[in-house]
Amino acid sequence: MAEKAEHYWFEMLNIDKINLGTSKQQLVENGIYIKKYRITIPKELYEYE
After folding, report:
1. By three-state DSSP, how is residue 32 classified?
2. Is residue 31 within 8 Å of 47, Cβ to Cβ?
3. Which residues are registered as beta bridge partners of 39?
4. Does this model's pTM top 0.90?
5. Is 37 helix (H, G, I), strand (E, B) or coil?
6. In which band, very low, low, confident or very high, does the pLDDT at 13 lie, cut at 50, 70 and 90?
7. Do 25 and 40 touch, CB atoms closer than 8 A?
8. Quick count: other Cβ atoms within 10 Å of Cβ 4?
9. Spatial distance between the Cα atoms of 49 and 43, rounded to a whole number of angstroms
10. Rounded to whole angstroms, what are the CA distances from 33 to 15, 24, 46?
């Protein structure tokens, strides 16, 4: 969400150095899967502007 909201500090993060583990995370059933972060989020959050 910080990336989507374009928070100024997000660009300072080195995503390649953040260990997300090897498993997929699922916050809700039937959500939207974000491959980059290996997480399933609610459709409403994905579509939120």
Report:
1. strand
2. no
3. 25, 34
4. no
5. helix
6. very high
7. yes
8. 12
9. 12
10. 18, 9, 9
